Each structure stands twice: as structure tokens, then as C-alpha cells.
Amino acid sequence: MADDRDPAAIPEAPAKAEVPETVQEAIRTLIHWAGDDPTREGLVDTPARVARAWKEYCQGYGEDPRIHLSRIFEEVGGYDEIVLLKDIPFQSHCEHHMAPIIGKAHIAYLPRDHVVGISKLARVLHGFARRLQIQERLTAEVADCIWDALKPHGVAVVIEASHACMTARGVRTPGVTMVTSRMMGVFRDDERSRREVLALIGC
Ligand SMILES: Nc1nc2c(ncn2[C@@H]2O[C@H](COP(=O)(O)OP(=O)(O)OP(=O)(O)O)[C@@H](O)[C@H]2O)c(=O)[nH]1
Ligand SMILES: [Zn+2]
User: Fold this and answer.
1) Known binder of ligand: residue 32?
2) One GO term of the cellular component aspect (predicted)?
3) Residues 34-64: pLDDT tens digits?
């Protein structure tokens, strides 16, 4: 059958998710409380946009990050050293102010018999980061998830991040980085292994 679509036609924008009226009303209330008029033209579509943006920031609630670690590779050619995924950029939001937490994570493990695809470590990170968080819990959740799923000899997670609730408001102190770490297995119990992984991470 002939395709009679005009190839030069502008494709339609994808349909946007419906946002319940109660959610939009809550955002209108906030805009009004902040001092603006939610009915003015520039703000009319803002409540729905904000709501969709928040669904995206909080996508992690819709997934169980453990699923990313279900596919393992056993043919590793005898590889038995540290695997490190370094400088993984991520974004989260703090549960106190719902302000952005922006930083990078370093995730390492010492495999026991099998490894996972490296992208999966970043997927686990994003699964927990796309929620309302404190950095300590984010660090612990990523490490615990890898520990439980892979049963490796060791896991090390180090996160360095800047919190907009400290830079853009409140104490307004830019340039501050919060560093958290969770060491498990040999990286916790064996000083030499701990030093080795921290040296690889560059801490
Ligand atoms: N430990 C920890 N604290 C965080 C994190 N994100 C934000 N905070 C802090 O959470 C605290 C909340 O303190 P509150 O006194 O309840 O809130 P606040 O009056 O807005 O505090 P200020 O930010 O100091 O203005 C602040 O000190 C934030 O800096 C995090 O990931 N971990
Ligand atoms: Zn905060």
C-alpha cells in the first residue's frame, strides 16, 4: 500500500501523560503562595509540566533496582581483581527540601565467580537516586543491593555530591561537596584491599 504521508510534515509531538487535577491544584497553590499568579499565561501549563518533571525525577519508585543485576556472566577468563565503575554522574533530590543533589558515584566490587554488565551498576545507582533521598541512604542502598545480588568478596561505593539545598538556599554555601562511602566485605575488613580500592577510585 502506498504511503501518502508528506515526508516534510512536522511529526506530532508524543502524547503527554495526564496529570490529575488534584496534583495540578497543589502546584497552583504553591505558585500562589510563592507570590505569583498561577492563572497568568506563562504559568497556565506550569503545574502539569512540574508534575511530569517530578514523575521523571522520581522514576525510581517504579522499579526494583535488583532486576538490573539478574543477568550475570560467568566466563571471566579467571579475572579475580577489582571491577570499578568510576565517575558515574547522577542526579537525585533531597528528601528534606526536594532540592537537587548532583554528583558522581564510584562503584567497585571484587567478583566471586561471576560479573555483571557494567551499565547495570549505573542502572542500580539511578534506580535509587531517582527518589527522594539523603546521600547516606543512597550510598548504603546501592552497596547493599550489589552485595545481596552478586554475593561478591567486597563492595565499595563512594559518592561525592553537591546539595542545592545548601548552595541555592539556606546556608547558601556553594562549592561544598559531601562525600559518603560504604565498604563491605574485604573492603571493610582488610586494610590492604580497602587501600587498593580507594587508590583506584582516587580518594
Ligand atoms: N545528612 C544529610 N543531611 C542532608 C542531606 N541533604 C540535605 N541535608 C540537610 O538536612 C538538614 C535539614 O535540616 P532542618 O533544620 O530540618 O531544615 P532547614 O531549617 O531547612 O535547615 P537549613 O538547610 O540549615 O536551612 C539540613 O542541614 C540539610 O543540609 C543529606 O543527604 N544528608
Ligand atoms: Zn535538602
Assistant:
1) no
2) cytoplasm
3) 999 999 999 999 999 999 999 999 999 999 9
Q: Which of 124, 148, 134 is nearest to 60 (CA)?
A: 124
* Model confidence pLDDT, tens digit, residues 98-116: 999 999 999 999 999 899 9
Ligand 1 pocket, residue 58 CB under 6 Å:
no
Q: Which of 88, 167, 100 is nearest to 135 (CA)?
A: 100
Q: Which of 21, 56, 95, 136 does the annotation list as catalytic?
A: 95
For a mutational test of ligand 1's pocket, the pick from 138, 165, 172, 173, i.e. the residue with the most ligand atoms closer than 8 A to its C-beta, is 165
- Tell whether ligand 1 has an atom less than 6 A from the beta carbon of residue 197: no
C-alpha cell at 151: 554475593
Q: What are phi and psi of 140, to 5 degrees?
A: -65, -40
Catalytic annotation on 153?
A: no
CA dihedral 79, 145, 94, 96 (to 10 degrees): -150
